[in-house]
Amino acid sequence: MNDTSGATAEGGAAVSAGALAGVRVVDLSRVLAGPLCTQILADHGAQVVKVEPPAGDDTRRLGPPFAESGDAAYFQALNRGKRSIALDLTLANERETLLGLLRDADVLVENFLPGTMERWGLGYEQALAERFPRLVYCSITGFGDDGPLGGLPGYDAVLQAMCGLMSVNGTPDSGPTRLGVPVVDHLTGYTALAGILMALVARQRTGRGQRVETTLFDTALSLLVPHASNWFHSGKAPALTGSAHPNIAPYDQFEARDGPMFLGILNNAQFARFCRVIGREGLAGDVRFVSNASRVENSPDLRKEIETSLREFGRERLCAELMAAGIAAGPVNTVPQALDQAHAAHRGMVVRSGAYRGLGVPIRLSATPGAVGHAPPALSAHEKEIRGELE
């Protein structure tokens, strides 16, 4: 593992020369998409104040497992580099404290149900746009605030179900299956990040902030590549694909002698090289497999031929030989195996800072690199410090 940590200043705020140094963010969001977005902003130098309800972000309790701090490991994954203050925004005096934070803020991120901020007199068009004209206001919701589903609550797995993702994930035996990671929440966090950064660039030109809206619904539908396009052009509803690709073969999981591996081949040259590596040169000239289209049409036959051959090979050595030949292949690793890869350490994607352990910074900038900030804060750990800054 790499020992990688961002420098910290007295009081716990991260010191960074990152691309977003000097950008001030007020984070009202909870759970995953919003906190992930603001953590990335913090990783790249933004000063993020996490405003939590008196009971704290729900994610603090989504365990076991729990970290040494007492907070759930889930919370630890999404809130490093931030300072925390607890505010009860149902109270007028606490809303005044929030308005004080917004005086110097560049960005506000919230993921309340639509209408919540308006009930508190804090809606963007209602109050904040005029009072804080340079503020970039990012709203993350399940479905938006209007339309047939407007204003309704949304969670990752429900959106996976509603937006067709589960219908193509799984096998005939398993039936439709939720993806094992909260992919809709995760991508929504990155979508919000992209919107915020675009709004900040536009502000340099116009001098004014704007509202950024992202929804889990829109994000989930945007993930339907290539399945939506396949449907538009064929009229055939995409089906459960297991580990296979609907448009490419062989692009699937196969069993080697000592365990599963994944093989990805996109063109005829790669397929011919693969056949040479496994000692089956004749497969490349087989009329059933001479093109990607024919390989897709005859994928059951192709699978039988490949799996018969792969039983003779250990997966680690075979994958190494295939990659050296320009063919994408890799063992199907467990999470511990994935994090223990030498390349994960080389890339700094497993980090340790004191008792904190987490994933590294996936966005690399050559001149203004990001850095992992201090460990996720205890609830309202910086209240005295933050209130003092408002005086």
Automatic annotation (TrEMBL):
One of its GO terms (molecular function) is CoA-transferase activity. It comes from the Bacteria. InterPro entries: CoA-transferase_III_domain, CoA-Trfase_fam_III, CoA-Trfase_III_dom3_sf, CoA-Trfase_III_dom_1_sf. Gene3D superfamilies: Crotonobetainyl-coa:carnitine coa-transferase, domain 1, formyl-coa transferase, domain 3. The keyword Transferase applies. Keywords: Transferase. SUPFAM superfamilies: CoA-transferase family III (CaiB/BaiF). Residues 381-391 have a biased composition (Basic and acidic residues). It holds the Pfam family CoA_transf_3. Residues 370-391 are annotated as: Disordered. PANTHER family: SUCCINATE--HYDROXYMETHYLGLUTARATE COA-TRANSFERASE. This is Carnitine dehydratase. It comes from Bordetella genomosp. 13. The lineage of its organism: Bacteria, Pseudomonadati, Pseudomonadota, Betaproteobacteria, Burkholderiales.
